[in-house]
Amino acid sequence: MNAGRAAVALVLTIAAAGCGSKSEQRGYEYMPDMTVSVPYDTFARNPVTKTGMTQQVPVRGTIPRGFLPIHYARTPEDAERAGRELSYPHPPDAAAVEQGKRLYETFCAVCHGASGGGDGPLVPLIPNPPAYSSERVRAMPPGRLFHVVTFGSGRMPAYASQVPAADRWSIVAYVQTLQRRHAETAP
């Protein structure tokens, strides 16, 4: 029994000595590279990688999070094809239409006007954009409208880099709401 107490006392004494703050030497590191790793700047050379570059090129076919590939070009043929092939990823609800209205007021109303009549405040400075009530625009399916918002048309710029795809669909839903309102009020 006395030897057991002596062993416990010895272990406690060693543990207490190891916890002292006066020692200049830190404890032993089992894997020092895990504690202190060598940082490389993004554009710096890196001897560890195959290419010698720190920043690597994404694997072919990689899609950034939050983006979907669009396999269409900015051509009239692809705009027609988009009209046939693309449709809403989710049926638009009231929240999507409201989001579309906010985005429309930000990006579209300056040219197309608040009600989509092609009479926005910039119209004196630019050629009139088509009114959403025109026969040509009313005949456009949602996929074609999405293509126009994505790639632009005529003097209209592309908004793919500024507006995410889900928000572009919301704009399309709001534009179709404006078209329905105009059709209801037309004589």
What features would you describe in this structure?
By secondary structure, this protein is mainly alpha-helical. The chain is 45% helix and 0% strand. The radius of gyration is 32 Å and the shape is elongated. 18% of the residues are buried. The mean pLDDT is 86.
Order of helices and strands: HHHHHHHH
Q: Tell me, what's the shape?
A: elongated
Mean pLDDT: 86
Q: Supply the helix-strand structural class.
A: mainly alpha
* Uncertain ranges: none
**Helix proportion range:** 40-55%
Q: How would the blueprint of this fold be written?
A:
Layout: H1 2-18, H2 32-35, H3 76-85, H4 94-107, H5 109-112, H6 135-138, H7 142-151, H8 165-185
Any descriptors?
45% helix; mainly alpha; 0% strand; 187 residues
Short description:
The protein is an all-alpha fold and 187 residues long. It contains 8 helices and no strands.
